[in-house]
Specification:
Diacylglycerol kinase, ATP-dependent diacylglycerol kinase activity, Diacylglycerol/lipid_kinase, magnesium, alpha+beta, 294 residues, phospholipid biosynthesis, Rossmann fold, single chain, Tumour Suppressor Smad4, 11-stranded antiparallel sheet, 4-stranded parallel sheet
Length: 294
């Protein structure tokens, strides 16, 4: 039996970009697989139900066409059911695709995927896990999560500039809060502005908050911005786009297999841009948890 694949499309991703590209992407995939099932859904619940139905019919590959939120749902399904995953970007951030080094344009990514399927190009990457939730990119809390909540309420502008404006808006309410991190190497307690736990480098539409994170090293990279004033943060912000923020005296980095993130701070954790819930949260790296095609 040949390759049986499903193409999961979230039509609204990228302000409709996924829906517009779905037909052409499907045509390209049909040249590389023997059977393709279209899974088009407008809600998380519907998407997961359709993915399970495709798995029950026999599934060798799940291709997600969408943004990081869509990819996040694909990660949940594929990690739980040991189904290989491929992602064709059609969102506003596309941070997982960026971290994996795939083309950032939908049709170019589809062409690359067709080539990878034909060549049998696959690899396993680590995932982060918090409770019952998997994440492929970054879990954040503090200033970051406040920015995420604001971004999710915004309707303009599109793309990375939305994050930039949300960052500026949240500066007005900036207050360092107590943060407690427990890892296999001990406890860290300090006043902090934000913490990011990265399986890969990027979040927020291309910000390398954990610039050295490697999704195949069995470790999570942790970036902490300590007690920083608004002026300090304004000075740090431009370097976030280049990864040079880790050189600032207020920034601390570490690596761990497991990290508990807590403290009396009222912070909410986000992972892959999706709301996880209030701290404390226990995070672990699960080596080789996901097979990627591409």
């Amino acid at each position: 039996m040949g390759i049986r694949a499903a193409l999961a499309v979230h039509p609204a991703s990228g302000h409709g970009a996924a829906g517009r590209a779905s037909g052409v992407v499907a045509e390209k995939l049909r040249t590389a697989v023997d059977h393709l099932t279209m899974v088009e859904a407008n809600s998380i619940e519907e998407s997961r139900a359709l993915m399970v139905r495709a798995r029950d019919a026999g599934l060798d590959l799940l291709v997600v066409l969408g943004g990081d939120g869509s990819a996040h749902q694909g990660v949940q399904f594929c990690a739980e059911h040991d189904v290989p995953l491929a992602v064709v970007p059609a969102g506003t951030g596309n941070d997982l695709v960026r971290a994996l080094g795939f083309p950032m344009e939908s049709l170019a990514a589809a062409d690359s995927l067709v080539e990878a399927i034909g060549a049998g190009r696959r690899r396993r990457i680590d995932l982060g896990r918090v409770g019952d939730e998997w994440f492929a990119s970054v879990l954040c809390a503090g200033f970051d999560s406040a920015v995420n909540e604001r971004v999710n309420r915004m309707r303009w502008p599109h793309g990375p500039r939305r994050y930039d404006l949300a960052i500026l808006a949240e500066l007005a309410a900036l207050r360092p809060k107590p943060l407690v991190l427990d890892t296999e190497d001990g406890r860290v307690e300090l006043d902090a502005t934000l913490v990011a736990v990265g399986n890969t480098a990027y979040y927020g539409g291309g910000i390398p908050v954990c610039p050295d994170a490697d999704p195949a090293d069995g470790l999570l990279d942790v970036t902490i911005v300590g007690k920083a004033s608004r002026l300090d943060l304004v000075r740090i912000l431009p370097s976030l786009r280049t990864g040079k923020h880790v050189e600032h005296p207020a920034v601390r980095t570490m690596r761990a297999r497991r990290v508990s993130v807590g403290g009396d701070n009222g912070w909410v954790a986000y992972a892959d841009g999706e709301r996880i819930g209030p701290l404390p949260q226990a995070v672990e790296c699960v080596p080789g948890a996901l097979e990627i095609v591409g």
